[in-house]
Amino acid sequence: SDILLISVDPEIGRGERDKPVSHPDFPAIKECGLAILDTRKLADRNIPAGQYIYTQQFSTSNSSSDFLDCDATDFQECVFCETFYIDAARLTDTINETFQRRDEITPDSFRNVAIIGHSLMSDLRILYRIGVDVTKMGNIVAILDTHLMSQNLV
Question: Which terminus of the chain is less hemmed in, N or C, by CB atoms within 10 Å?
Answer without folding.
Answer: C
